[in-house]
Amino acid sequence: MRYLPHTEDEIRGMLERIGAESIDELFRSIPEENRFEGPLALEPALDEIRLMKHLGDLADGNEANDATCFLGGGMYDHHVPPAMDQLLLRSEFYTAYTPYQPEVSQGTLQSIFEFQTIVCQLLDMDVANASMYDAASGVAEAALMARRITKRERIVISEAVNPEYRATLATYLSGLEGPEIVTVPAATDGRTDYDALSAATTEGTAAVIVGYPNFFGCVEDLGRVREIADGAKALVVTVTAEPYALSLIKAPGAYGVDIAVGEGQALAVPPQLGGPGVGLFACKQMYVRQLPGRLVGETVDAEGTRGYVLTLSTREQHIRRERATSNICTNHGLIALALAIRTAMLGRRGFEAAGRICLSRTEYLKGRIEDLDGFEIAHTAPTFNEFVVRRTTGKAAPLLASLANQGLLAGLDLGLSYPDREDQFLVAVTEKLEKADLDRLVDALANA
């Protein structure tokens, strides 16, 4: 059954108001040959029994589900406890929507408030919002926020930031007049080329954006980045794709970072074909009025009882209208809740313990691969649980395809995003990988 709320007279009136003769005219920017007409070519509907069998057959065809996974590059295969799933299945959580009415949304509001608190603790920042879509949108919103704060147009970003984040940034800024994106190269050690960063960071720079750790797994020298940015009175923005790294390395806030964003997927849900994730976004208190999205705050009611409300809501549908700082409409609230549950289960000690396991197993694997003929560790900068391997005898792509056929997802082909790195692949290690898994990868590389 189709739901068409508007009458023919109402549709005609709206078209006249905007100066269009028909609804089809609204789609004139789409070439006629690309417009679909007629019914969709769908197979007949299935009853529930046959549908469940069909879905099972499709799931059985996913061979990657049983493969040993060393993929990273922004999505990480960490353990997700079944208890977390059971909590997320509670109806008040998975059916909840934006808590516009605080008197009937205290549970949802408190869960968001707890999430914000956890993000502030992870990043060591003053204030965090109710989440973004993902780290990519977080990077773009951070750049827009820096423009508003500094009234400058130049955004300097490291080549060692995830290529997809950089592409999203370019898309966000492409419709605006004035913004300039300057990309600085990575040095041979895997970190940003700080000399090039210094040269690019001029007085017109709004923000300097670096990964922490960066896309190659290397831990940037944020003290150096802060010094370079201060020389031009620019803001420093960091993006952390692997939140488990913050269990062992200093948080961005410890270096005086102005805006810290990140991806929370690793602490919330499995990779799931690349999504969904949850964007982390935090900043210094002085910039809170320029924060995108929503902010839940704590207050008391007329009787003095603690309660939670939407303290800031900056999108265009609310009172700020054209002065809104962001047009983000919904946040990934369910994934944000998953992150809050998972971190509460881990606790500080568990978080650090998981991080130490990842680090120790990563160092073991790096050492073993370094000893192989035909392979070398590409960078010398310190890493957490991700590093780049260079194949000295050819391209990485055919090697990775061959290993995938053996049930080993051995890494991410960097040639997909960096044409000069076709001989390199990115390897990630999580606590789910045992020593036997690491040795299996080494043996497969040795016999490749």
Written overview of the protein:
This protein is of the alpha/beta class and 448 residues long. The protein folds into two domains: 65-79 and 351-446, Aspartate Aminotransferase, domain 1 (Alpha-Beta Complex); 82-342, Aspartate Aminotransferase, domain 2, CATH 3.40.640.10. It has twelve helices and 15 strands. It has helices at 8-18, 48-60, 82-88, 91-94, 106-123, 135-150, 163-174, 194-200, 222-231, 333-370, 396-405, 435-446; strands at residues 68-69, 127-128, 154-158, 180-184, 205-211, 235-240, 259-263, 279-283, 294-300, 306-313, 375-377, 386-391, 408-409, 412-413, 424-428. Strands 2-8-7-6-5-3-4 form a seven-stranded mixed sheet, sandwiched between helices. The protein is globular, with a radius of gyration of 24 Å. It starts with 7 loop residues before the first helix and ends with a helix. The model has no long low-confidence stretch (mean pLDDT 93).
